[in-house]
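Input set for joint prediction.
Command: fold jointly, output tokens.
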Amino acid sequence: MLKIEHLAWSIPGGEEIIKDIDFEAEQGKLIVVTGPNGGGKTTLAKLIAGIECPSNGKILFDGEDITNLDVTERAQKGIAYAFQQPVRFKGLTVRDLLELAAGDKLPEEKLCALLGQVGLCANEYIDREMNTSLSGGESKRIEIATVLARQAKLSIFDEPEAGIDLWSFSRLVETFQQLRSRGTGTLLVISHQERILSIADEIVVIADGRVRMIGPGKEVLPQLLADERAARCPLGKEEMA
Amino acid sequence: MNKITEELLKEVADFKGEFQGAYNIREDGGCAGRQSTKNIQITSKEDLPGIDIHIAPGTKGETVYIPACVTHSKVDDLVYNDFFVGEGADVVIVAGCGVHSDGEDQARHNGIHRFFLKKGAHVVYKEKHLGTGKGKGLRRIDPVTDVYLEEDSVLEMDTVQLGGVDRTVRKTNGVVGARARLVVRERLMTDGEETARTDFDVTMEGEDSGVDLMSRSVAKGQSHQEFYSCIKGKARCTGHSECDAILSENGTVTAQPALEASHIDASLIHEAAIGKIAGEQILKLRTLGLTEQEAEARIVEGFLK
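tokens >
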């Protein structure tokens, strides 16, 4: 359902961050993208969501070339994107954002279910503004809930674990598993967390702007863990190879 | 009352064909309707244009409406309204103002409202301003609000002006007694060639008094806004003011907040921010499927809610 072909992106007038990325994501799967910091994972997510434009390559979504579509058009086609750093709004409440995401008014039970999926109690949050009075962890979980509310064909989560507590993280892992078991949408999660990697159908390791390793989670994860035990950083592997 | 007044009242004073309870409708400087209740007595002033509103001690749950409308140009309406709110009363006061002009000359309403709250009284004061009509004559609304809060009283003022008023100078002055609180929420939007000036001057004189001023505004088109506030702490007290302005197109905003503390236990804070809508906010709403224009409109709507 998502096909990336020879994707490349450079900082305007500067370094090439994504050099040549190819991979395919199947419908209903949970794909985890991992790799060292600075390797291009967030940029890849932004390229898929349309926040950045590639300098080369193609992005195909359900067989359609979406490379030249803007953020809004891609969102309307069914791509949802959870920001790594949640955006704050003075004046928009949690309810406003969830309803904008869902494209409709939401009954209390639905709001409660959505926030419950990220470990928040709806009564305490629905009428609060998404402003700086919320803690980093709270706003991060609400950001994730806005993507869950979209029920999109492809949902991209950029480091969903960052800034949230252990209990909420466990709840989030369960939510990803539930979503995957429904098989209705594809999940693309950028993460370093072993617990998320361990539930992946497929793992894509991005390093130095390229796909360093790709394959079923059960095969890739043991190799990653073995590398970790050998105290080797994936960076520089290209030179070693 | 004429048709224009009726339309303006729907917008500024939640008018649904009639008002329940006490009211006074001012139309082009005259009186288009008045009703007192057992607890809320409205009488004309003898020496000045305007009314006195006496709210009996202990009055609970009543709403008094005192809207004012100017329905054509060449009107310069000046009115003095005084509210005397008795001890322990808890009421809502709605004072919408609409100015309509289809002519070449100016239409202006200048309402000077004074609030005297006795011990323990609580007032929610709602003020909504609107300008309508296609005339070239300027639509002006220049309200003055003077607030005197005795001990343990609370006045919550909610003031909104979202369009059509060409010129406005809004002055709010307050003196806050012991354990009393003044809370002001201002929402302002200007467009075209409109100008708006807000002036707050509040003195906290009593022990443990408090002030909270929150102003949110959007300056669009070629419009210009000025925000001045001065919070003075003369006793152990807490004062907070916050002004946020969004700039759009060629709108301009000046903000000059001031704090004056003359007591060791006065705790005063001011927060101010002026800028266009953050790009990441628009981007976030676009990732939810909104266009750039829809995202901007939604952000402004929420900001001024």
